[in-house]
Write a structure and sequence with these properties.
The protein has 6 helices and no strands. By secondary structure, it is mainly alpha-helical.
């Protein structure tokens, strides 16, 4: 469930499906009353705060300079999908945004990429270089 109690459907790749198939038999051994996919060591649904803390810790362990949090994954997903497909409507649908303007937040990064390609390709953009 997402913001505003909206149901979210998330596409996943074959590798994730394979790992979930490995996890589900282990998850069943918790004999938990909850239907949550991921559980704490006590068999309870993991909290959003627990996930945030784990992301922050993993970021530190990996030496990532910026703070890592779950929303950063969502933002990265949207940005990469937009850069590779250019389909703003598809990104809007996958993110569950009601308004396209909300999705357009991700276009500024795509424009930065476009500007760098332009600078690399345009002859007048190559300032100070003699040909």
């Amino acid at each position: 469930m997402g913001k505003g109690s909206k149901e979210r459907r998330v596409p996943i790749g074959r590798t994730a499906v394979t790992w979930l198939e490995h996890w589900l038999p282990l998850r069943a051994s918790f004999n938990s009353e909850t239907d949550a996919l991921f559980l704490s060591s006590r068999g309870q649904r993991i909290s959003a705060r627990n996930v945030q803390k784990r992301f922050a810790e993993w970021g530190i362990r990996q030496g990532v300079a910026s703070h890592i949090h779950p929303h950063k994954l969502r933002h990265s997903f949207a940005t990469h999908l937009l850069e590779s497909s250019g389909d703003l409507r598809a990104v809007q649908e996958l993110l569950g945004h009601a308004n396209l303007a909300t999705t357009q937040i991700y276009t500024h990064l795509d424009f930065q990429h476009l500007a760098s390609v332009y600078d690399a390709a345009h002859p007048r953009a190559k300032r100070g270089k003699k040909e």
